[in-house]
Amino acid sequence: MAEQDFGALISAAESWERAAEGFGEAEADHRTRVYHATSGNAEVWSGLSADAATDRFAATERELAAAQEECRGVARLLRDGEAELTRLRGRLMSLVEEARAAGFAVSAEGHVSVADRQPNDPETQRLDQVAAEWRLELDRAVSLVAAADVSLALELKDATTGLDLMGGGIFNGAALTDAQVPPGKQAAELALRLNEEGELSEQEWFELNQLMASHADDAAFNRHLLTELGADGLLALSAQVAGHLGDGGDEESRRRYAILEQRLANTVAVATQTPALDGGIPYGQWVHTEEGRFYEGWMTDLREVGTTRHPAPGLTDHSVTGYQLLATVLSSGEGYPDRFLRDLADDIRTAEDPTRGGSQDIWHQRAEEGNVDGLSAAELDRFALDPLDAVLGLMAAAPDTSAAYLDPDANDNLDYFLHDRKWNHLVHYGEMDMNDHAYGGGDSITARPTEPDGARDGLVNALEAATTGIPMGTDSPAADRALNRTEEGARVMEHLVAAFSDDEGALIADDGDWSFMRPELGRMTAAYMGDFQFAVGGKIEVMPVPDPRLDLEGVKVDKFLGQLGRDPDAYGYLTTAQQAYTAATVDYALNSSAGSDAILEQRLEHAVAPGAMMAGILAEARAQAVYADGVASDEDYNQKVESALEFSGLILDELASKVADSLPVGGSFISWGVEQLNDAVVDSLVRDNSAAVADDVDSAYRQWRQEAIDAAVRAVEISGASHSDDMRQHFGNSVNLDVQQFFHTKISWDPGSMPNDES
What we know:
Number of helices: 29
Strand order of the largest sheet: 5-6-7
Strand content: under 5%
Radius of gyration: 35 Å
Helix content: 55-70%
Number of strands: 7
Low-confidence stretches: 164-168, 432-443, 658-674, 687-694, 745-759
Distance between the termini: 85 Å
């Protein structure tokens, strides 16, 4: 960088200035010889063609004038850019000299070290810290040069390819004027005008979109834009967006504001880039940089306006909070830094948590009913009525962020969400009730706070991401659709199982407050199938359970699983996962090591017993849900196969890639893989229809037990390829008896008694 010749920029500027002079001469010649010689001179030329030509000649005049402005503007940008790059490089070189004068060595790559290093010297250790600070300053100085270089390139692109605000049509006649204003300030001025006047011209809309699109990845531009707007200005703009994307408005207006919403979301994501929570520059050092000072200041401003109420015309007649507006905009974007999401979630919780001085009713909004102009059902589909749940939904795209935020060893967030938080933020107002004194006496209108559809979706998605390691959202890359458990996620799962197994699993019972979450809990449980089989199977373990392992000691796992089995979706996930894991365990038992037939037979018993116990728990729960509750058939259960098979495939893929790589698996498990197992799972889940094959609980229960037997026998048939036909038949008979023996469980059975075991 020290040898870089910035003088080339001056040479280029001089060339552009000469081009401007040439365009000026062409303009003067055109004006004298063409435009003025013919325009309005009837003796030379008249009629319709003359009138048309006059307009064209005038347009040429404007284009030639615009060309001069563009050339001069580009020349000025080049000269200013050269001056700024030279200044910043000088600052960088001065820092290098200062560091060297202070006794530090600076390499060509910018590495700073103690010049005369003495190992184990306390003074050297102190100097190492000082050297790190010098390195941080040098890195920042280098980044400023790089940012100036990128900014110059973007400004040159804007000046030469941007909209011609002077109307010339080819050249940017406004290049000289606009180049004097930083792009972030230009965008902010247009955004503030939209706030004040409620609309922009076609030209202004185009310019705003151009600025935000061309600088989408420019952190300096986006920080400048947010600084100029201020937190209050951003929220006012968010209110404009929310109002225009509601039920009303024409299609073109909604399109414009939808684009603007995505641009604003991107602005926040890029401007709030912060050091990662698990590494990078220490935050205490980073906050003293330009970027850190911006972040700290902006988050402080956001806390002040996030809890205040703002008008949202077009959305509702009632004011909404700043955090609701911000979360609505953010929900259209992605790529937010983990620190920003966690800081924002903490600030929103502080605003609502009474133990932190907040108000549980702060997010209350009126529903559109009873002649009250509140939020309609369509508006609730996209308006972040619950900003904290919306932020949790954004975290769900980053499993590590979700796991860290919900880790019960690190904070009390999970307990707060499960036990203490209010979720009923939508308020329905009824007719005047002269006898109702609950809301101010006889002159009040009755109010009923309720949960809207989709309440808690953000939390549920964050929990699933945290525990399975799979990013939530339809845009997640296919490569990310793999189980990736972590220590933090395992602690979240342990906490959930303990909370949802208490009091006979009341929280996830049919009428429980969290019963809606049973499908997601089924997937989360499926991701830890080895741990659950170990827990319900009396700690029988043939194949080592993948790490990290769950600590389920003392937890009523059967109560938890019994409630999940009552849900068709959860039942499908758990059954396919149980069969997948049991099949892998059978393969491991038959092929991981040599032994006598008796030893192999015992290993097979240990392989199928835990899965059989789990199958029995699920069968009892299924029977209770289908029959004891008066359901005519279990058709719902038989239609939950396709999505459940995906999870059985994930489990097999994980066992093939993680377990089999580290264990001496010699069988055909990896080769037969998902396809053949899925065939068996499909057969066992869809071939029966209880209305046709079972008239009572006993026959249905026997049918489901037979399915568990068939799945285990099928695993023996596939994995026992290295054994003789007779031994494979013998082992199949053995696991048949094993499943029958271990299928029963001890969870409560209602109605009446345990189903009859007789065949």
